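Subject: sequence -> structure tokens, single chain

Hey, anyone have a minute? Need the predicted structure for the following. Not urgent.
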Amino acid sequence: RATWGEASEGGRSPPPRKPLATRGEFLERIRREVRRAPGLFPASAAERPPRPGEAAAAARRQMAERWPEALERFRQEFEQVNGVFHRVAGLDEVAGVIRDIAREKGARELVAWAPGELGLDLRPSLEPQGFSIAVAPTDGRDDARRRHREAAARAPIGVTGADFALAETGTLILISGAGRPRSTSLLPDTHVAIFDRERLLETLEQVGIMLEALHADAERSMSGGVISFITGPSRTADIELTLTRGVHGPKEVHAIFVGAQ
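Reply:
Had a minute. Here:
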């Protein structure tokens, strides 16, 4: 094997190595790039609401009037990050959308949140059509959770609900727990999330208020839960900024909004 400074096979010498940048040159490059960026706005931590329940109720009242505009903003932002948006009038139409997505992918295996967490049971509609659906366990047994993770690793499609849908960034927010494991949304190549107008929020500030309210309610506390903010398909870029989808999560994300026009 030829080494640097020796002739390689064919009589050609390898190109000379580029000299490594000195510490000063490296820092100067960073300064140069920072100077090209626009000025940053001052950042500060938001104040925690003294009465989270009341603040959450106020946000809900606001969204009762503004949800159509919020939904349109969510759709626009979601599609900008390569999400696929669907709208149906009722829950009875959801299985048909998922069936069409599965057929397009050539998929027969699906995993889903437990029916009580998802808001519907897909098995009666889809299993007679030849689909296999593994629903997440709710009893917390380690062997049942392990089997669901294994099913999620095999299945091309995972179906979940969404605790919140953030309009200003097109983000789906999911809280893990019994019957709603992270594996359902993270391991399959295609993630399908179902939500309605009650889940819509306009701003990240509203999301913070809702999460504070959940923590303040002992019966709804998210102790041990993981909060996932999902903004479109998984994206990973290397040092040369070559973008690759699906390395750390789904390659495709669909959102199904349930609600009449």
